[in-house]
Amino acid sequence: MTRRVVILNTDIDAVVCSIERSQTLPADLEMADLEIYASYQRLLENEDLSTPLAAILALTEMMERSNAGTMFELLNELKGGAEALSRQSSNPIGLNAGCELFIEFITLFPHDAATFSDLKTELIQQGRQYAEQALTYRTKIAELAFDFIKDDSVILTHSYSRVVLQTLLMAHKRKRISVFVTEARPRGMGIKTAEKLTAVGIPCTVVLDSAVAYAIEKVDFVLMGSEAVVESGGLVNAVGSNQIAIIAKAANKPFYALAESYKFHRMFPLSQYDLPSHNPRLLSFPQSLNSTRRSSFGRRASESASTPIKITQEDIAQNNPDVDYTRPDLISLVFSDVGSLTPEGVSQYLVGMFAG
Amino acid sequence: MSSSREGAGGADGSADGPKSRGLRIFSHFGLPKTPGHQIKGDIHPAIIKLGLQFSEFKICGANARCIATLTAFKTVIQDYVTPPHNTLSRHLMTHLSPQITHLVNARPMSVTMGNAIRQLKLEISDSDIDLPEQDAKDELCQKIDNYIRDRIIIADEVIEDLAVKKIKEGDVVLTYARSSLVEKILLRAHSQNKHFSVIVIDSRPLLEGKTLLHSLTSTIPPIPCTYALLPALPSLITDADVVLLGAHSLHANGSVYSRAGTAMVAMLAKEHSVPVMLCCETYKFSETVMLDGFGKNELAPVKFSPGAPKSNSNLEVLNPLYDSTPASCITAVVTEVGLIPPTSISSIPLALGRTTL
């Protein structure tokens, strides 16, 4: 499977993305697959919906359209839909977590409705209800994390996370806090966080990703959002999280992760290169790239050695990962709507939920 | 070594006790028995044979011993006749107990055998009193077969699938000694045309890695292998992409009881940030806590240490068969219910025997 569609948020990436999309969407993608991906994209436009929830809602919408006559058919369709979503997304980790949870829920749902169509209606309703309820999880998490934020705390956070933002906004109402936020290249989402925090009057400074070790001594603790919390108890989040965790550990600062329970994912990465988002293109050296590839450094260098070599931001972003994996031993606590868990607790919760 | 129990008291370093044999602090270790150890009571021939195979290390390894024990028990159960004025569900266990004792005398019981026997006891006490004797015996044998199939054979297949997915194209897999499960995983990965090479680390006294090396290199085409002894590990660990290990048992605190040397391999791998995958079926779980390799261990028989000093009686040979690896040195445990961290094994109901497959 070589087809890849990259959906990123910044403008530069959008250009790259549209080129890639036109190139890589082959005709053999079925109508249903495209449809579910379109609804997933539409749902993601809602600021409040994170990828797992959007995936759950996309699957719910798919169920509405489905004319499956039995549970078996329906489950197969859903599994197909989940696969199609994950195939078409560049970073499928978050949405996989949502799909996995939803399919597990459907499988275990008691079949006591009179007819199958009743059951289906019930399931659709349950899906919507869950998504609705799940939106309140962030408040719950903010309340849990609030107890750990002391007055006059200096907090370091990374990139942009809705749950971290909500926690900080809540803490600001009752306590004095100041925040360091990393720039989070290549997407620069940290700036968005900084803008939102400054707008409500929280003292906030943007820190370069490379200056985290410089800033860490001034920090009381780290608050980190997450894309997925995995079975080892570690987390997958925007690239740079791992190095912040390592620096926090070295400086003996607590590292708190915030994650809604729908981000708990039954996956066990052994290392960075074991993540589903990893591919050989990442961190590859120019000579190992296919020479016909557009805008590869290697080709430029060999073609025109006399002209100065220019490396643009897109070139850099292309060869670099979007997400990284943080080991559980670097994490102090994970705040989620099911409670404040140690990384071992997270893995036990996940094992209990899926392996029981 | 064979007389170490008698000498256990004389090892306190006094100058006038040069005859001391066996160190007092290790006197609790399971001691190797002489092959023809005494047969007490009514022991079934199948069990006597198995006892010899155990004490001679002809049948070795947690899975092999468990399967052999259960298979022998099937013969014992089939040959058993309930005495008059008794019922099978109440009497069979008293008939099996001396058989178990005989096996334990041959070689200390493995955790796997313990778990399987506990399950068997439960099944015997649950068997229906009104069932005709032959039917009850057949049902028990069927249950034993199911246990072997579900908890060992099928479990192994699932583990193979999961572990093979983690072996990537071009990986260098490092393993220690020989685990039947690791061997199956490597052969399966090879049969799926994955290209990878293997480093087999081995150690005296058992040198089990040779058997593994033989089976890996007998495939067509052979898997590229490197064979080295434990002291060479530091220079080879840097080449490894993943470490695959087997286990004797997995304990409630996440520590792993496995062939002596495993802890060293796991610790060195952690030091070099090489992921360590432990392959272990859930029936190897033990509810006890293991803190080190001294609390419980077993000594290798004398025949595996031919160079044992005879002339200098102040020098003792101590060859523990197992060691304990702390949970922090294991990245993931591959079980039939998925990959889990070693400390989470106790939250799997299946491992606790609360549910059956």
TrEMBL record, chain A:
<dbReference type="InterPro" id="IPR042528">
    <property type="entry name" value="elF-2B_alpha_N"/>
</dbReference>
<dbReference type="InterPro" id="IPR051501">
    <property type="entry name" value="eIF2B_alpha/beta/delta"/>
</dbReference>
<dbReference type="InterPro" id="IPR042529">
    <property type="entry name" value="IF_2B-like_C"/>
</dbReference>
<dbReference type="InterPro" id="IPR037171">
    <property type="entry name" value="NagB/RpiA_transferase-like"/>
</dbReference>
<comment type="subunit">
    <text>Component of the translation initiation factor 2B (eIF2B) complex which is a heterodecamer of two sets of five different subunits: alpha, beta, gamma, delta and epsilon. Subunits alpha, beta and delta comprise a regulatory subcomplex and subunits epsilon and gamma comprise a catalytic subcomplex. Within the complex, the hexameric regulatory complex resides at the center, with the two heterodimeric catalytic subcomplexes bound on opposite sides.</text>
</comment>
<dbReference type="InterPro" id="IPR000649">
    <property type="entry name" value="IF-2B-related"/>
</dbReference>
<dbReference type="GO" id="GO:0005085">
    <property type="term" value="F:guanyl-nucleotide exchange factor activity"/>
</dbReference>
<dbReference type="GO" id="GO:0003743">
    <property type="term" value="F:translation initiation factor activity"/>
</dbReference>
<comment type="similarity">
    <text>Belongs to the eIF-2B alpha/beta/delta subunits family.</text>
</comment>
<keyword id="KW-0396">Initiation factor</keyword>
<keyword id="KW-0963">Cytoplasm</keyword>
<dbReference type="Pfam" id="PF01008">
    <property type="entry name" value="IF-2B"/>
</dbReference>
<keyword id="KW-0648">Protein biosynthesis</keyword>
<protein>
    <recommendedName>
        <fullName>Translation initiation factor eIF2B subunit alpha</fullName>
    </recommendedName>
</protein>
<dbReference type="GO" id="GO:0005851">
    <property type="term" value="C:eukaryotic translation initiation factor 2B complex"/>
</dbReference>
<dbReference type="GO" id="GO:0005829">
    <property type="term" value="C:cytosol"/>
</dbReference>
Automatic annotation (TrEMBL), chain B:
<dbReference type="InterPro" id="IPR000649">
    <property type="entry name" value="IF-2B-related"/>
</dbReference>
<keyword id="KW-0648">Protein biosynthesis</keyword>
<keyword id="KW-0396">Initiation factor</keyword>
<protein>
    <recommendedName>
        <fullName>Translation initiation factor eIF2B subunit delta</fullName>
    </recommendedName>
</protein>
<dbReference type="InterPro" id="IPR042529">
    <property type="entry name" value="IF_2B-like_C"/>
</dbReference>
<keyword id="KW-0963">Cytoplasm</keyword>
<dbReference type="InterPro" id="IPR037171">
    <property type="entry name" value="NagB/RpiA_transferase-like"/>
</dbReference>
<comment type="subunit">
    <text>Component of the translation initiation factor 2B (eIF2B) complex which is a heterodecamer of two sets of five different subunits: alpha, beta, gamma, delta and epsilon. Subunits alpha, beta and delta comprise a regulatory subcomplex and subunits epsilon and gamma comprise a catalytic subcomplex. Within the complex, the hexameric regulatory complex resides at the center, with the two heterodimeric catalytic subcomplexes bound on opposite sides.</text>
</comment>
<feature type="region of interest" description="Disordered">
    <location>
        <begin position="1"/>
        <end position="20"/>
    </location>
</feature>
<dbReference type="GO" id="GO:0003743">
    <property type="term" value="F:translation initiation factor activity"/>
</dbReference>
<comment type="similarity">
    <text>Belongs to the eIF-2B alpha/beta/delta subunits family.</text>
</comment>
<dbReference type="GO" id="GO:0005829">
    <property type="term" value="C:cytosol"/>
</dbReference>
<dbReference type="Pfam" id="PF01008">
    <property type="entry name" value="IF-2B"/>
</dbReference>
